[in-house]
Amino acid sequence: MERSGTTLAIKFVMTFILAAVAFYFMVRNPWSWILAVSIVVTAVNYLIGDLVILPSYGNLVASIADGVMAGIVAYIVSLLFTTFDTSVAALITFGVLIAIGEYLLHQYITKKEEVETT
Questions:
Q1: SS3 for 105?
Q2: pLDDT at 110 > cutoff 50
Q3: What is the pTM of this model?
Q4: Banded model confidence at residue 14, pLDDT cuts 50, 70, 90
Q5: Phi, psi for residue 28 in degrees, rounded to 5
Q6: HSE on the CB side for 35, CA within 13 Å?
Q7: Residue 111: per-residue pLDDT
Q8: Is 26 buried (19+), middle (13-18) or exposed (0-12) by CB count in 10 A?
Q9: C-alpha to C-alpha distance for 78 and 64, rounded to whole angstroms
């Protein structure tokens, strides 16, 4: 369980930083919305991407799925709340950055698990 907590913490920090790049520096959303989107994206990507897609389809497919899901979640939040603004460029940037970040994170986690078991 400790490994899951550490993984979630790393995933959240990464998601928050990448959301800030896309939604603060590109669109100037309030930090509270960036935090909220980061929490939701982290949860969705962990529950669907890491626990369902990653074991079944591998790192590349899971990373792409995580990027797509991140963009969709951010878009849905922007539809539901008019105080959170997005642009197509910001959504694409966020999705691509999340996909790259998740790919690297999955590699790190896999290597760490191999080291811990040997």
A1: helix
A2: yes
A3: 0.92
A4: very high
A5: 65, 50
A6: 3
A7: 79
A8: middle
A9: 21
pLDDT beyond 90 at 109:
no
Tell me the one-letter amino acid at 114.
E
Residue 48 identity (one-letter amino acid): I
Query: What is the sign, positive or negative, of the torsion defined by CA atoms of 68, 9, 115, 118?
Result: negative
- The dihedral region occupied by 58, where left means phi > 0, alpha psi between -120 and 50, and beta the remainder, is left
Q: How many residues does the chain have?
A: 118
Q: How far is CA 48 from CA 2, 45, 102, 113, in A?
A: 20, 5, 13, 20
Measured from the Cβ of residue 92, the count of other Cβ atoms closer than 10 Å reads: 13
Q: Which two tokens stand for residue 97?
A: 């950055």
Question: Mutual orientation of helices 31-44 and 2-19 as an angle, nearest 10°?
Answer: 140
SS3 for 15?
helix
